[in-house]
Amino acid sequence: MSRPAASGVVGGVVDRVVALVLDRRAGPGRTRLVCVDGAAGAGKTTLAARLERAFRTALGDGARVQTLHMDDVYQGWDGVAEGRLTVATSVVGPLRRGEAGRYRRWDWHRDAFAEQRVVEPVDVLVIEGVGSGNTAYDDVTTALVWVDAPPAVRLERGLARDGEHLRERWLAFREVEEAMFVREATRERADLVVDGVGGDLWQGGDMVVPSGEQYEITGGGYRAVVTECGAALRVLEQNGRPLLLGFAEDEMPWAGRGQLLVPWPNRLRDGRYSFDGRDLQLPLSEPSLGNASHGLVRWVAWTLEERTAHSVSQVYRLMAQTGYPWTLDVHVLHDLSADGLTVTVTATNLTASAAPYAMGSHPYLTTGAGPVDGWELTLPASTRLVSDDRKIPVGREDVRDGDLDFRVARPLRSTSLDTAFTDLDRGPDGRVEVSVRDPARDEGVTLWMDAAHRWVQVYTGDDLPRLARQSLAVEPMTAPPNALATGEDVVVLAPAGSEGDELSASWGIRAL
Q: Which of 19, 111, 271, 446 shows the smallest number of beta carbons within 10 Å?
């Protein structure tokens, strides 16, 4: 038998369902109806139990959440049709009118009806079991979730629970359910298909997907997925249109995709710097170039602080360590609205001495199928850094009226960029906006940065395996590459408890 997965596997599925349901309006009776369907033995009961707990947590004190098991309504192995009719007419029917539904529980051991049960109008009703996704009440179903599992696995689970003597019953029931699923196109109608074996609901051993817990949020027509690993932005889309090049749930976000870069962005030559009279050496996380790259929080597990339908906040305590002997509390909030995504990163110094600090983020923007050559870039910057072959700055250059002047939108064509820009033109609100647009599709995406971000790195990804020039990394940064060594635009966080011991910086993405 398989056994329940670690929370890093299951939580992602549960979070996705909760976010989907809470982002949708309740039906006529003000009850959100969640149907968890699939063949017998797929894992529906396991998912339903976790959904009930998750909805209670998400809705808070006083939440009214109830689960109805189709097995409690069926009149034995041959009672699927009658049971489905009972749920449709005696439970969902009254709920449509804001009234309580009722049914008699079937006692499988006595092979007879037992007590009557009442289903009051609640905030969320989870109906779980074979045939729960009934087309008779599809119009008031908030979400239909299909749980998948191979026939051999389902049969093994069923016989382990019910006994080998019921094998023929199980095989006969399989024919009944398969015919019903085909007739009603249940799987095809599902809002979400869950893997009941490989990674979504069940998992052998203690395996967790590389990006850990998955936190899906929705709001204002946008959808995002943020991961436990690195608090990375894995998915961002508007009405189904991808706005960034993300990564799969079971994939490591190589090339920095969607990651946070704290307590320094970009590269530090030889990993060496001095601060407050101390010479410090960081590990070389980019050994091929001899650099310490992109901070210390990219691969750590961030703790969930709070989650709503449209936002998720995570925290991580960066402990003092070799090369960075200061302890920081780092907080990140991802929030969706009709204005798109807003990301706010706050760092607080917990050490008795001042600490050097900078931050950045690494989203790869996309506006349809690449390559980027036909896309138009608007980048209101007057200066760029000139770098050596180790990607460390060796000078700066005025880009106005030159090949890298994108202050007015123009096509990228064959321009190759892995370049830090500064002297940014800001709007009245202090924000800078960088936009890419595909004129052929008349679609685009904008990344904005607040006043804390004085730099932006733009990267066409020419050296990315399989993904060269398929997206454009636009990386908001509070300081330039090699900043810990040069001190340029590095923020000095005051000792803990003092004024200036904290810094917040925000950036965001919206569709054009």
A: 111
Residues forming beta bridges with residue 474, ordered by sequence position: 458
Cα–chain center distance at 136: 33
In 3D space, the residue among 441, 484, 432, 477 whose CA is nearest the CA of residue 459 turns out to be 477
pLDDT tens for 166-201 read: 889 899 999 999 999 999 999 999 988 888 875 544
Q: Which residue has the tokens 């192995």?
A: 77
Task: Tell me: pLDDT of 207 over 70.
Answer: no
Chain position carrying tokens 């647009």: 437
Confidence tier at 206 by pLDDT (50, 70, 90): very low
Name the token pair of 404: 């890298």
Residues 474 and 363 sit within 8 Å (Cβ to Cβ): yes
Rounded Cα gap, residues 249 and 191, in angstroms? 18
Q: Give the separation between CA 481 and CA 267, rounded to whole angstroms.
A: 5
Question: What is the domain class of 215-511 according to CATH?
Answer: mainly beta
Annotated domain spans of the chain: 7-208, 215-511
Q: How many helices (H) and strands (E) does the chain have?
A: 8, 34
**Alpha-helical segments (H) within 247-292:** none
Q: Are 438 and 412 in contact (CB under 8 A)?
A: no
Find, among 56, 35, 63, 226, the residue nearest to 147 by Cα: 35
Residues 305, 250: Cα–Cα separation, whole Å = 23
User: What is the spatial distance between Cα 293 and Cα 155, in angstroms, rounded to a whole number?
Assistant: 50
- Average pLDDT of the segment spanning 355-375: 94
- pTM score, two decimals? 0.64
pLDDT in tens, 74-125: 998 999 999 999 999 999 999 999 999 999 988 887 788 888 889 989 999 9
Length of the chain: 512
Strands (E), 12-138: 32-37, 65-69, 101-107, 112-119, 124-128
Topology agreement, domain 7-208 and domain 215-511: no
Paired tokens of 507: 């950036």
How many CB atoms neighbour CB 321 within 10 A? 12
Residue 187 tokens read as 């799987």
In whole angstroms, give the CA distance from residue 457 to residue 477: 7
Q: How far apart are CA 129 and CA 144, in angstroms?
A: 12
Q: Which of helix, strand or coil describes residue 470?
A: coil
Which amino acid belongs to residue 179? A
The Cα–Cα gap between 345 and 281 comes to: 25
- Residue 275 near residue 356 (C-beta atoms within 8 A): yes
* CATH code reported for the domain at 7-208: 3.40.50.300
The per-residue pLDDT for 210 is 82
Residues ≥6 apart with Cβ < 8 Å to 100? 94, 118, 119, 120, 121
